[in-house]
Recover the amino acids of this structure.
């Protein structure tokens, strides 16, 4: 491991100690991220990350002008559509 990889490993392990959910995947094949349940570390064969939280925003569609306005979640006005990111 180089210095940057060590710093990232420490950040992820500290996140786990602080209660964060951890995900992992094989380094060689770059498979999709999976939830980490084994509770042992193998930084040679796997990479780890703190599981990202899905982002949310709201969208307003204007069918007359074919435009879309995006904003952070707010008051939940009647015509705004709430959107949540799906993280695989």
């Amino acid at each position: 491991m180089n210095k940057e990889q060590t710093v990232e490993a420490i950040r992820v392990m500290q996140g786990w100690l602080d209660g964060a959910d951890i995900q992992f995947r094989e380094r060689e094949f770059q498979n999709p991220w999976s939830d980490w349940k084994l509770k042992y570390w193998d930084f040679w064969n796997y990479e780890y990350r703190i599981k990202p939280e899905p982002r949310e925003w709201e969208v307003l569609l204007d069918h007359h002008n074919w435009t879309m306005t995006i904003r952070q979640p707010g008051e939940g006005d009647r015509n705004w559509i709430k959107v949540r990111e799906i993280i695989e």
